[in-house]
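Quick question: who can interpret this fold?

. . .
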Amino acid sequence: MIWTRSRATVDSHQPKPGLQDSGGRMSGLFLAICAIVGTLTINANANAAVSGKVTDSNGLPVEGAHITFTSEPDASQHYSDVTDTDGMYHVTLGIVTAVEAESSIPVTFQLFQNYPNPFNPSTIIPYQLDQTGHVSLVVHNMLGQPIRALVDRVQSAGLHTAQWNGYDDQGNGVAAGLYVIRMETARYAQSKKAILLDGMGGRGAAFRGPHSAKPAAPSQDRLDLYSVTITGDDIEPFSRVGISVQASATLDFQVVRLAIDESAPGESLAGPSGQTVVLQTDHWNNGNKKNEFQYYLDNGSVVKHGFFNEFDEKGKLIDQDKYYAGLCVEDCEWRRSFADGWGTSAKQTVDGGYIVTGKMLTLGVLLLKIDAAGNEQRKKYFDDWGERGNEVQQTADGGFVVTGREQNYNGFLLKVDNEGSEQWRSTFEDAEGHSVQQMTDGGFIVAGREIMNRQSSTLLLKIDSQGVQQWRKVFGDGIGLAVRKGIDGGFLVTGAEGSYATGIEVLLLKTDEQGIE
């Protein structure tokens, strides 16, 4: 289960008399990874035995919690254990190195799921390589734009880790939401989804960038700083940074447990931001469980939270979806219907949700914002002037831009903020917009058609960030249905040309950055 916000305390003190280290036991993922890369050795000069107890807010021991210490100067150094029945853990902090052996090289390429996930402020990304070669590990936003290069170099075969702290390549904190971590080599590529909680937006630069000179070694007084994460099936994810471990010590942690009694549907539990989380269970006619899910009410709206399980009539679990405050984080499928009309374009947004444009049956442009779970968040109609929207894109400022056709058969480009409120509208006469893309200068390129004397010609428009048209180009008979900017700065348009009388053919049009063919 995934819950919203960690509330925990940490108590640091010297070892109790008679307390001895019983030896670290690594968590399942870390143990499996260690088995792949071979024998591990510990640098005895940097060892620090750490023991402690993990309890809940009632002081009861938490069994089966995964606790991980990650070195802040070197994120590749991390040490894990699983709490026993008394809530106790034992780890030995040191410098871990892999002993090279022929049998230790992994036979597969794999990007593991980052942990913790969801996360704040940072997350560890383990991966393994089957052979030596160039590796690219990049974080992308939901627009597909690369925002942070974590790895871009040749690495040897074996296990590696990277760390992302929620900042982009310019040192700016990014907003909360869903991100894609993609790893590529010459032969393989693989992606994983990561969820940043609360966001790092507005925080200052935290690093020098991916292409800066190698940073100086950390000062000695920072070599003992660790980040600690604790996760478990029935507790809120817990994380703390900047914990100093100068010598063998006992560190006790307190986490929030969210126990669920499935035999008591409707039991109220502590939820996000003081909300009440409810477990609801529905049954088949034969009495078997049909579905069960957790939710809380936000201004009267049901927000899924934790999980949504479905069972067949025999009581067998057939689908399990996991949610975080309404955001689907694992194995979620759904189908929704909205309003009277149809959609023509849908895009995923940076918050993991979706934006849809289209046409209402009664004339009007539709703009619909949907969350990641398929729930309607906002609905806007532009029925006083608009007929339909043909494509929608999210813009760099978090708002949206829509192109389509007005009621008087003029084309339009509509810019709205993230709440759907109109900021400006650019109209182009005797035309229709079918595709739009934002440029790096903040402006937009629009493809569509110009309609003169019942003849359609391919249209290409450049519009600045304030909605002012900069140039307009028309090409032959046809229609532009999609446009993208090329790596040389020019534009590529595809669509159709010709007519039903003479025959219709696929159009592929290449222009320079000024729209000249």
